Amino acid sequence: METTYLVVTTALFAAVVNCCPPADLSALLAFKSALTEPYLGIFNTWTGTDCCTNWYGVSCDPTDSHVIHVILRGESEDKLMIDKTSQISYMSGSLSPSVCSLDRLTTLIVSDWKGISGEIPACITSFSHLRILDLTGNQITGEIPADIGKLGKLAVLNIADNNITGNIPPSIVNLRNLMHLDLSNNRISGEIPADIGKLSMMSRVLLKQNQLTGKIPTSITKIYRLADLDLSMNQISGTIPAELGSMPVLSTLYLDNNQLYGEIPVSILRNAGLNIVNLSSNSLVGYLPDVFTPTTYFSMIDLSHNELKGSIPASLTSAKYIGHLDLSNNHFCGAIPAGSPFEQLEASSFSGNDCLCGTPLTRVC
Ligand SMILES: *[C@@H]1O[C@H](CO)[C@@H](O)[C@H](O)[C@H]1NC(C)=O
Ligand SMILES: *[C@@H]1O[C@H](CO)[C@@H](O)[C@H](O)[C@H]1NC(C)=O
């Protein structure tokens, strides 16, 4: 008798706590019906009425059972052994706007399935709790919703490796909690918003391989926490703001393959925290300043394919460490200094200059 009572109350309790709200349930079922994932069958787990238990990738708030996370990552599926270069689409279909009914969602990750197409549902900007939006590695087209700035809690916006077009919406600067912005490898055009520096929480800004034009906004140098900046493979012009070299935690700077001109700011070569710098394939001119010191530490510095001239500064030999240095395809002239790091570098680091000589080049001085 007592046992029966216990079993019944436990079952009731479980039903009350675990059952997902009907609105969330129908939103998830509509989301599922717009997608096809034939390899793992993960949507086979999306059956029954309790979306909070054993639904692959779905988690609910433990107190009131509202759906708070939908996390479907193709890349983390070892069983698929996803090869980044393969053309196989592991999930196809599109992102149903029904997902927007999950109004308590804090995390929406549907990444690296390669085949999801269609647009980012415009209604996603109504999520008032969303902290992570990651749709990397699909074939999403269309534009970033113009009112993306309404996502006041957003910390991570990652839509890299898709086919997104249009501009970076000006409202993006209202995402005051944004820490990671990755729009790499899309077809985004127009300029980087001049007031991007308002995003003071950002630590990574990755905009590589798009069709961005205009200048590097000076305001970006006001982002105190910025550690990684990648603007490579765009059509950005103008000069490199000298203030980039005085950013306190900047450690990687990729500006390669743009249309930057003017001289390399001395501050960039002197910044002790900056240790990966690629300025290759621009139209940078002038001399390489003789400003290196025993605190200079670069894992990689690539200045190749520019219009730099003069001699290679002797102070480079005083650097604490230079892992990779590429000065090829410029107009440098004169003797390559002897000693570290030059003794470890290959001739290809110096090829294509006007009149360099000495080891590792075969041309004797
Ligand atoms: C996305 O872009 C790639 C390469 O540019 C192209 O092969 C593919 O067809 C595009 N997909 C869509 C859905 O437009
Ligand atoms: C620097 O950028 C150029 C141009 O985008 C690229 O070809 C090169 O591999 C990069 N250098 C390194 C060392 O990654």
UniProtKB/TrEMBL annotation:
Q: Name one GO biological process term.
A: response to other organism
Give all residue intervals belonging to the Leucine-rich repeat-containing N-terminal plant-type domain: 22-61
Coiled-coil residue spans: none
Descriptive protein name: Leucine-rich repeat-containing N-terminal plant-type domain-containing protein
UniProt keywords, alphabetically = Glycoprotein, Leucine-rich repeat, Membrane, Repeat, Signal, Transmembrane, Transmembrane helix
Transmembrane segments in this chain: where?
none
Which first-to-last residue range defines the signal peptide?
1-19
Disease resistance R13L4/SHOC-2-like LRR domain ranges (all copies): 101-203
What's the short name of a Pfam family annotated to this entry?
LRRNT_2
Q: Does the keyword Lyase apply?
A: no
- InterPro entries on file: Leu-rich_rpt, Leu-rich_rpt_typical-subtyp, LRR_dom_sf, LRR_N_plant-typ, LRR_R13L4/SHOC2-like
* Record flagged with keyword Transmembrane: yes
Gene Ontology CC, one term = membrane
Spell out the subcellular localization from the entry. Answer: Membrane
